[in-house]
Amino acid sequence: MTQEIHGTVADGFEGVREEFAAFVAGERPDYEGQLCAYVHGRKVVDLWAGTEADALYGVFSSTKGAAYLVVALLVQDGTLELDRKVTYYWPEFAAEGKGALTLRELLAHRAGVVGTDTGFTLAELADDRHLAERLADQRPFWRPGTAFGYHALVSGALVGEVVRRATGRTLQEVYQERVRTPYGLDLHLGLPASDEPRFRPTQPMAPTPEQQAVLDATPDGPHTLASIAFNRNAAEPTDLAALPNMPLVRAKGPASVGGVASARGLAGMYAAAISEVGQQAPLLKPDTVAEFGQFHSVGYDLVARAHKSFGLGFQTTADTWHPFLGAGTIGHSGASGSQAFADPWSGLAYGYTRRRFAFPGGAAPENDRLARAIHKATLAA
Prior knowledge:
GO terms for molecular function: hydrolase activity. Keywords: Hydrolase. This protein is of the alpha+beta class. The chain has helices at about 15-25, 65-75, 85-90, 105, 120-125, 130-135, 155-165, 170-185, 210-215, 225-230, 245-250, 265-275, 285-295, 315-320, 365-380; strands at about 5-10, 35-40, 40-50, 55-60, 185-190, 260, 295-300, 305-310, 315, 330-335, 340-345, 350-355. The radius of gyration is 19 Å and the shape is globular. The mean pLDDT is about 95.
């Protein structure tokens, strides 16, 4: 039985609804997902299937977009300086040869502290302060600044500690005050208990036999960089797909992977970043967007073991996922399949969530066809 498509699209975006319906028709009968987009601050797509309009999902690393937006705001304010050493804000970080690393290099996944030798407990993963304390003493897994690798579970804690030292407030507090509350965004770094009934637990991946064969053919030993980065070297290895289903993770909202959101929340945040929304000026000036969207790490990612590219924290989405987007597009995907971005050239802000963990992890494949359909309609409008 095909899921019914709910929601609205603006004039000229009818093809997006058709594309979403065609995708959902080919999915499992229990598919749940949401799609939302803004153009120049105006909501043009608001669709969902198999769920409620205001359902909330674990968005994994799409959370990082909120963390990097906070950093971009503080850089824009002059509170943080990209080319200062991290130790200017956080002296303890100098341990084990990390003292020369700059904030710019930290944001670009060049620190080399993707995890610790013995891994983290769940309580540590849920608490950015605990993560930062552990990581300050950790020796880097490569010489800081000389290479890059995705700091999957810890980048939010690392930049969050810099934010806390510079402002006296947690990254989550700054996000709440400057981003979430003013725009009423359904993107939470720390889900209030009152919103718990809206949360839809992440469902595990359901690979086809062919997909399972791919997964089985690429096992990781517990001490590879990838395993360390995803905490598979811990005494109790992390089940990534289950993280947002842990009440402690939802409550604390770790800035790397702990966000809970709707597609509306994701798209709304990126719309606010680059466009006037509700008569409020864009959060970021064009020069700030350009700085954070500029390529900073391009080439072989030591953790992903593949070609990747990053700006300052944000994934350079036009290179990584969608080549039809404008240069300097900023965004981030999440392991469950979620994705969100802002294209400053077209004014497009995009958000997508889904409940079931996608194969093989990261932005789900359907994002390409959905984002392409929205971008096409945007250019034709």
